[in-house]
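Is magnesium ion placement plausible here? Inputs below.
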Amino acid sequence: MHHKHNIQILLWDIDGTILDFEKAEEAAIRKGFAVHGLGECTDEMLADYSVINRGYWQKLERGEMTKPRILVERFREFFGKYGLDTTKAEAFNADYQVNLGDTICFRDDALSVIQRIPKDIGQYVVTNGTAIAQHRKLSLSGLEEIMDGYYISDEVGFEKPGIEYFNAVFADLRKKYGEVDPGKVMIIGDSLTSDIRGGNNAGLICCWYNPKGLKNDKGLRIDYEIRSLQEVPELLGSWGRG
Ligand SMILES: [Mg+2]
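Reply from A.M.:
I modeled the complex. Tokens:
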């Protein structure tokens, strides 16, 4: 039995948490291959790309590479590995950003979870995606209307898990709520290195969405670990309806 926190604000990750990022990624890449005449993109190539891509985002999280560079470099490496024209990486990525926002697939019926959260709990999006893709997703998914606000790293000027990112989020939240206690704010996300490390850095309640039952091998503090987003309403203590 968990000790229940008094939670006032939820910070939701989008990709891999509310939305099924893998499905959107797959659709966007296949479309790009067709449009740019790159031939067939097999399931094996997609799986390979996924690994390459994750490696680049981790470089970003560690501050080793800028975002504009990782966006193009991941495709350059991927194309290079399969003998495809690497000079197409930049144009491919530009189209990919648009296409990525076009495939909306909720995980765990997330929309119904979000709508079930009591109205006196603020709900915000915290995401490292690019502004163009994330705005498209937020608007097409209907999340833009339901959420109380969103913090896209491109617009904030910093990335999760950096404390600068969370400082900027809190500066904005304080404009709306006055004083905000980080101990009453819960971040919900699938990434240990981005969401949970960020939540640890900022002193938030950390809820790890871990549908695949992965190991917490990073030594991070996790207050709640859930397999399904349907478990979120019951974590909300006296504010929630269980
Ligand atoms: Mg995520």
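Short version: Residues 21-100 form a domain with the DNA polymerase; domain 1 fold (CATH 1.10.150.240).
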